[in-house]
Write a structure and sequence with these properties.
Largest sheet: 5 strands, antiparallel
Strand order of the largest sheet: 4-5-10-6-7
CATH class of the largest domain: Alpha Beta
Number of domains: 3
Structural class: alpha+beta
Helix content: 25-40%
Number of strands: 16
CATH topology of the largest domain: Uridine Diphospho-n-acetylenolpyruvylglucosamine Reductase, domain 3
Distance between the termini: 55 Å
Strand content: 15-25%
Length: 359
């Protein structure tokens, strides 16, 4: 299918993009194009003009400043997923970026475009909500920051103004008593999340002091699961607490607003939500229970296993690995990961494989 005719404008600065948006009220921004172009080809979107910001300097890259990391709006998913330090600082965001689409999509799609497009089935909104991120925008009145809890307002609707440009997302770092993770039930046809759940938990010993649990693919926008959060805070992080939080995941959601389509009824989505909330929390509970594995905080369920054979040394806590892949946790992981883990477990109980050391 072919999109309708449109005018094309290339911005050379953020200020230029803002001016072009003001001059063309029906214009849309385009960066990586992975969200906008398919909707234009299908006829779901028909903007009169496109403002291309892919050539604007200073909107890409990852910069760390103290206790937070700034992700430029033009930063690709692959840049985030391949950043080793990001897996230490904000695991849920790095892990989610690595789950988006396929390699081609991750090499082209951008973080800012994803957030600004606000597709309810996209992966990043839930992760950014769990991570307590802040979105930075630039408009006719200058720059402003929007808390992530206020940013997503509906299907393809955000708190950013019509003439504002998302310039970046600031993600606070996790400390030593915090762990996070993301799981999803992907659509078999598109890879988008039928249901995706992201969690970040802070603990004092075994007690949950702060819980941020969020979902995408369920409502018309990424949303916090306050029922699950309330069930966790102040409780000992054990299997009973995880089960209770999963059962409460949909308690504060308006069931009449739960998405329903050819792939899943609203009732089935709520069932998936409960199951995948448990899986996300169990994944995070495992990381917390493992003592964060010190040298490889997320080895058993994170980057070190997700990319075996890569160009880095993989450090794995063997008892954690065995426990994780011997239990129900493996149900929430890709088949390629579990196959690798099975190979590791079968090989040896002390040194797991070439380039992979046990603690």
């Amino acid at each position: 299918m072919y999109p309708d005719e449109f005018e094309y404008h290339s911005a050379d600065s953020v200020e230029s993009a803002v001016s072009l948006l003001a001059e063309n009220p029906d214009a849309e921004l385009i960066a990586g194009g992975h969200s906008l172009l398919p909707t234009m080809k299908s006829g779901l979107a028909s903007p009169d003009a496109l403002v291309d910001i892919s050539g604007v300097d200073g909107l890409d890259g990852v910069e760390r400043d103290g206790d937070s990391t700034q992700i430029g709006a033009m930063t690709t998913y692959a840049e985030v997923a391949d950043d080793d330090q990001f897996w230490e600082d904000a695991t849920v965001v790095a892990e989610t970026a690595g789950e988006i689409g396929d390699r081609q999509v991750r090499n082209r799609g951008t973080v800012g475009g994803n957030i600004a497009h606000a597709d309810p089935a996209s992966d990043l909104p839930g992760a950014m909500l769990a991570a307590d991120a802040t979105v930075h925008v630039h408009g006719p009145d200058g720059e402003r920051a929007i808390e992530i809890d206020d940013f997503f307002q509906g299907m393809y609707a955000t708190a950013a103004g019509e003439e504002e440009v998302v310039t970046g997302v600031e993600v606070p770092h996790e400390d030593d008593d915090t762990a996070s993770g993301y799981v999803k039930k992907p659509s078999p046809s598109s890879g988008y999340a039928m249901v995706g759940v992201a969690a970040r938990l802070a603990l004092d010993g075994d007690t949950v002091t702060d819980a941020r649990v969020a979902a995408n693919g369920v409502m018309d926008h990424g949303t916090r699961l306050s029922g699950a959060e309330d069930a966790l805070e102040g409780e000992t992080l054990d299997a009973d607490a995880v089960e209770a939080a999963g059962a409460a995941a949909g308690d504060d959601l308006d069931e009449y607003m739960v998405m329903e389509d050819q792939q899943a009824s609203a009732e089935f989505r709520l069932q998936l939500l409960s199951v995948y909330t448990e899986r996300a929390l169990e994944k995070t509970r495992f990381v917390c229970r493992s003592g964060r594995c010190e040298d490889a905080r997320y080895g058993p369920v994170g980057r070190e296993i997700r990319r075996p054979g890569g160009d880095y040394v993989c450090i794995v806590n063997y008892p954690c690995l065995l426990a994780a892949f011997g239990g129900s946790l493996r149900q929430g992981l890709p088949a390629s990961v579990t196959r690798f883990a099975d190979t590791v477990v079968a090989s040896t109980a002390s040194a797991v494989s070439t380039g992979v050391d046990s603690e």
